[in-house]
Amino acid sequence: xxxxxxxxxxxxxxxxxxxxxxxxxxxxxxxxxxxxxxxxxxxxxxxxxxxxxxxxxxxxxxxxxxxxxxxxxxxxxxxxxxxxxxxxxxxxxxxxxxxxxxxxxxxxxxxxxxxxxxxxxxxxxxxxxxxxxxxxxxxxxxxxxxxxxxxxxxxxxxxxxxxxxxxxxxxxxxxxxxxxxxxxxxxxxxxxxxxxxxxxxxxxxxxxxxxxxxxxxxxxxxxxxxxxxxxxxxxxxxxxxxxxxxxxxx
Length: 250
Fold this sequence. Notes:
This protein is an alpha+beta fold. 23% of the residues lie in helices and 33% in strands. It has 5 helices and 12 strands. A 7-stranded mixed sheet has the order 1-2-3-7-6-5-4, sandwiched between helices. Strands 11-10-9-8-12 form a 5-stranded antiparallel sheet, with no helix packed on it. Strand 6 and strand 7 form a beta hairpin. The longest helix has 17 residues.
């Protein structure tokens, strides 16, 4: 007998500081179903990588977080989640005919040189395994002005048309459900090639800054199974860098 798939439970908010924080608070206080989603019209203090703030105009964009439980996902395979979420987003944006979609390591989604989506994954461990993850996504949709963020873009600025947020969310959640549903049966080396094929500025000379802010040149050659960035430096040597050691300047 086949079990009928449950639809995601979606909690809609007018405004919250952070959908990730709201969902983590709910998960800590009671048992929530797998793939519970919190979506907010306005996120007052949305967070990105390195603690940066994610700026979003109220009612113009998709800002949501989802809760995903795991049973056999070792903590050392954490980068699988970055891969799965990035690929799901890339596929859905390409289905919407958004041009030149790439992943800026580790998990910003780009259209050409413009950042249109950010991902923040927060894992809760039990022993050496990931018990569950709170996956936050901020997708710029209908916002067209970004103040002092010249590299930011949106689906509207990249395609020249506007989108219905209510219609955008269900197919995106379905792709996320599909990709996240198989990560426990996969290894990072199995899934890395599809991720690496979409890397922003792969095989191109690119400016980076080290942890002290000093600039240097390198060429992105790939990503290690540990999720670190593989750069070929000017002397021909290859080195790996984690998120705290390097940032891409573009």
